[in-house]
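Because discrete structure vocabularies remain unfamiliar, we reproduce here a specimen of the format, pairing a chain with its fold in token form:
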Amino acid sequence: MWRAPAPGLSRSRSLRSLAAPGGRRDPASSLRSLDRILPALGRGHTLVALLLVIEVGILGTFLALDLVLFFVFFEVVLLPMYAVIAVWGGDDRAHAARKFVLYTLFGSVLLLVGVFTVVVSAGTADIVALTGGGELSRGTQIAAFVLLAIAFAVKSPLWPLHTWLPDAHTQAPTVGSVILAGVLLKMGTYGLIRVGVGVAPEGARWAAPVLGILAVAAIVAGSLVCLAQTEIKRLIAYSSVGHMGFVLLGIATLTTTGIQAALIGNVAHGVITGLLFFLAGAIKERAHTGELAQLGGLREQSPWLAGLLAFAAIASLGLPGLAGFWGEAFAVVASLDKGGPLWTTLAAVAAVGGALTAAYFLRLLRRVTHGPAVGVLDPPGLARAEVAAWAPLVLLALVVGLLPALVLGMAGDPVGALVEAVGS
């Protein structure tokens, strides 16, 4: 949320406040003072403009059929998202924004090298013509896939390149957290399917066992870390690591069922986790804290808010009939169908990870919604704007959960064509 400028704050007064007593400037205090002033300079229209630039990058990434244009649009979102976190974020926003941009720049360099390797070797940047490997040699495909996979893993983010995500989510304003979880993470997994697997299938087949192992490690590690979290936004952020692990497991199988599971898992995660961050932001604004120990008794003060949080939590843990179920279930089924000791073991461990997901979300609900009220919510009710923003996400979570064919049917032919071109 953007913060209004402090009353009476003028440019001259702001600059004078940076000087130490005696007219001398202390660099450390100057940086701290500037860090306090920057959020006050933010305006609502500037935030909206940055969000529109991010939207341009998102739409361009999903629509681009040229590898160079894909890279350009993929990178368009970097600086605006950095500004959203750095200016409108929480108290530790500077550290979170720097960490976000450094990790993402690392991924961008690898993505650029991977795109350059493919385009120079194939003589074209047409993604459609490159799908299936084209004229790329096996060695080139393996090298390109490794570069592309690491780059997309940073953006997704996939374990163990996920450490920027909790800080970014925790410090970002609510709108930043929602966009990060709902859309930006999906750019990485979409790129891994459309570009990584599609353009370098030999590399994908070569790396599939490693991807499967990393996916299951992400599911288990993300769930265990969530069980130890004490702050609501950090818990939801770490839950994304586990959910993206199920998406990666589906991709790693290189089967129609697995890639379909990854796609519907992407859609479900965007809807449900976006709703969770909306709710977490609303709770923090009302209670002025995100600590679970200070948020007890939510159902007594705000039954509607507690009910929506419970709905989003059980949707995210994969309750049958809600959107979160299909991606996780199909990923496990695809791994079992793949067969062999490795994939059967990965499916079993992933299923255990799904049970751990239920454990930490039930712990969240016990801490936040049950028990006697600890703090005071101001205001306890829901605003009309909140209801208008959250209602579509609630409906989508129900519709996708009850009618998964709406997503699977649209993706059926493209996924079949991709799997056929990959030749798995």
Q: What stands out?
A: The two ends are 47 Å apart (CA to CA).
